[in-house]
Write a structure and sequence with these properties.
Blueprint (H helix, E strand, L loop, with lengths): L12 E12 L2 E8 L2 H6 L7 E6 L3 E6 L10 E6 L3 H6 L7 E8 L13 E6 L4 H12 L7 E7 L8 H8 L4 E7 L9 E2 L11 H4 L2 E5 L2 H13 L7 E4 L15 E2 L2 E2 H4 L2 E3 H8 L5
Parallel strand pairs: 7-8, 7-11, 8-9, 9-10, 11-12
Antiparallel strand pairs: 1-2, 1-6, 2-5, 3-4, 3-6, 12-15, 13-14
The chain binds flavin-adenine dinucleotide and FE2/S2 (inorganic) cluster (FES).
Flavin-adenine dinucleotide binds next to strand 4, strand 5 and helix 2.
Length: 282
């Protein structure tokens, strides 16, 4: 786990909303900057880690960091407004203050993946946790083999990061493959589940390191599909979500079998979570 810039990891630091970007109905990106210059200088994160964002008077939620670790001064979070806290966060605009604790958790194996192909498979707002790893690989394109980004949405109007997908696609040896469950006029991607686009993934990306996040049924279906295509189980990683409170391995709220998602995850080798994913209610 990366050290947090606060001496007390339970204490939120004040962060200012620098910009809010509306990505799709109910989905927005908050660009945050820590108000304290010392904390700002000390803040560093790894792709795949998350922060706890605190809406004063309402509560805290775990949200992935989606920006480039090369620029930790501005910390981006893409959020879907689903409940109490996130529906409050959607009302914040530039200049507003919220609390931030973090970064927390184990992120993607970007160091171990060096020299290999990369395959990102995501569904819905699940693309957020991989965004930072994609930025990381794009910034260091010569360190990795072919990169394939496969993303599925229910309908095209729910697609976020249109600009990012366009710019990622223009990077060398990079594919962006989109699928929507229901087509709408103008849709140029595939129609169906995200597994539909796996036929088009470059073989070196398919045989490289796979990083996935999204609904758990999707994670299972994609992992099985990749293994049928010859991918090794030890090359498949997933980012998991559970309700979090302390984010420090103390409260037990995020427990998943023997693991605590907040400190042992949220990124896990698929082999470690495969059995639990098929147990209903875990
Ligand atoms: C490690 C980690 C990273 C995360 N990263 C992100 C992220 O980058 N962006 C993001 O938007 N969310 C992310 N989440 C999920 C986010 O923490 C929850 O959406 C949030 O806790 C909801 O809080 P709330 O108070 O707004 O909703 P609550 O009041 O707690 O929930 C309200 C209702 O929404 C439902 N609900 C809660 N979470 C979800 C969900 N994820 N999808 C659909 N329905 C839900 C609940 O079942 C409930 O019915 C992450 C979670 C974890 C554990
Ligand atoms: S959130 Fe408290 S133990 Fe993980």
């Amino acid at each position: 786990m990366t050290k947090t810039p606060s001496s007390n990891p339970y204490l939120p630091l004040a962060a200012e909303v620098v910009e809010r970007i509306d990505e799709a109905p109910g989905i927005f990106t908050l660009r945050l900057r820590l108000r304290d210059p010392k904390a700002r200088a000390a803040y560093q994160f790894q792709p795949g880690q998350f922060n706890m964002l605190y809406l004063f008077g309402i509560g805290e939620v775990a949200i992935s960091i989606v920006s480039d670790p090369k620029d930790p001064e501005i910390i981006d979070h893409t959020i879907r407004a689903v409940g109490r806290v996130t529906k409050g966060l959607v009302r914040l605009g530039p200049g507003a203050t919220l609390g931030l604790r973090g970064p927390f958790g184990r992120g993607w194996p970007v160091a171990e993946a060096k020299g290999k192909g990369l395959l990102m498979v995501t569904g819905g707002v699940g693309c957020a946790p991989t965004a930072s790893a994609i930025q990381y690989a794009i910034q260091r394109r010569e360190d990795y083999g072919p990169l394939a980004i496969a993303h599925g949405v229910k309908r095209p109007s729910e697609l976020i990061y249109t600009e990012r997908f366009r710019s990622w696609e223009s990077a060398p040896q990079t594919q962006v493959l989109l699928a929507a469950g229901h087509a709408e006029p103008g849709w140029q991607g595939k129609v169906g589940l995200v597994t539909e686009v796996l036929d088009d993934v470059a073989p070196e990306a398919l045989q490289g390191i796979a990083m996935m996040c999204g609904p758990e049924v999707m994670l299972q279906a994609v992992a099985e599909n990749l293994m049928e295509r010859g991918a090794a189980i030890e090359n498949i990683y997933v980012s998991m979500e559970r309700n979090m409170q302390c984010a420090l391995g103390h409260c037990g709220n995020c427990q998943f079998g023997k693991e605590f998602l907040c400190k042992d995850g949220p990124v896990f080798p698929y082999a470690k979570v495969q059995k639990l994913l098929s147990v209903k209610g875990y």
